[in-house]
Amino acid sequence: MVAKWILIGLVVIAVIAGAALAAFPQDPNLDPTRQHGDISTAFGSPILGNPDAPLTIVEFGDYQCHQCYNWFHNTKPAITRDYIDTGKANLVFVDLAILGKDSLTAAQATHCANDQEKYWEYHDFLYNSQNPTIDGGWASRENLVGFASELGLDVDLFKSCLESNKYSDRVRSNTNEGKSNGVAGTPGFFIVNSDGQSDLISGAQPYIVFKHILDDMI
């Protein structure tokens, strides 16, 4: 009887995974069951750093969020140097597109860039191009296509992806994942260890805050 229920459970998981793949067309390496602690990161970014690192930093962010911009420029470089580049931690970015209509489009654009294996390059370009005015036009569809051109992407392919809203459901799913895990604003971070234990950091906290938690959880 126990074996029967285990088999049923495995079938249900397979069906859910298949439905996820059908609902969210992705790159062929997508793992629809990817999970860090209690957080589904299946439809987030590619993993930055060593996938086998003992810690994962899950960042929930919005490309129009100025505090996300501050964290990207003021804290992330040291974390990258001391933890990601050294294999102690990796990073996954999950969209929490809540600040305006251009937030949704900008997030979709990163996944269109990922179709051409340029997710992180495009992600960084957005945070280096941000204007503090919400929906002020810096992340318009026209500008997003222009950013793709500057990065050397196939513009026609990128534009077709963006205009189709191919990844709108994916971004909404990511946003709902953040909300369901209690992330009330951006940026929000979960530090997750290999046992699935996690610690929440709210806001663009300085490096020392992250260092204390990361060192304690390694």
Please explain how this structure is put together.
The strands form two sheets. Strands 4-3-5-6 form a four-stranded mixed sheet. Strands 1-2 form a two-stranded antiparallel ribbon. The N and C termini lie far apart (40 Å). The model is unreliable at 1-23 (pLDDT under 50). With 218 residues, the chain is an alpha+beta fold. Helix content is 50%, strand content 13%. The protein is globular.
Radius of gyration: 18 Å
* Envelope shape: globular
What CATH calls the topology of the largest domain is Glutaredoxin
- Mean pLDDT, to the nearest integer, reads 90
What labels describe this entry?
218 residues; alpha+beta; Glutaredoxin; 2 domains; four-stranded mixed β-sheet; two-stranded antiparallel ribbon; 9 helices; 6 strands; globular; disordered N terminus
